[in-house]
Predict the structure.
Amino acid sequence: SSLRKEKIELEDALEELDTQHCQAQDQLIKQRDHLIAQLSEHTVQIQQQNEEIEQLNKWLKEAQDVQRGEDEREKLDIEQHLLLEEKCKRVEAEFAELKSKSFNSSIEKEIADLREKLSKGGLVINDLHMDKQELEEELKSAKEETAVKVQKVKEMREANVIL
């Protein structure tokens, strides 16, 4: 009788443990399914962020290419500016040399021609100077845009590191 009672108690305890085991398994399955769903969601988010990073890197490269092109154009403009300044100095030297010679009509005509060339050279130099200023402003703007894009890329990378 006491053995039967103990047997019944053990069977009841075993049934209770079996029920708890089934509940624990169900809970683990639900947690696993939830974690799989979260993993899938995070994978999609990471893919989207990677695509955004690729786009930002593309924009950054384009901005850097534009900046390099502007640097090269500015260098060419400066070289042209220096060449024109050199030509102007030669014209001024020729003008000074002609001025010291006798002033007959042919020399006066040459002087007038040289003055016209000097005037045109001055206008060209002025135009180049204005172009140089515009290029410097564009370069500054491109550098600022690049800095902003680089900062965004850094922020996105930091956000990815956090994830």
Remarks:
- The domain at 69-163 is CATH 1.10.287 (Helix Hairpins).
- Helices lie at 2-100, 105-162.
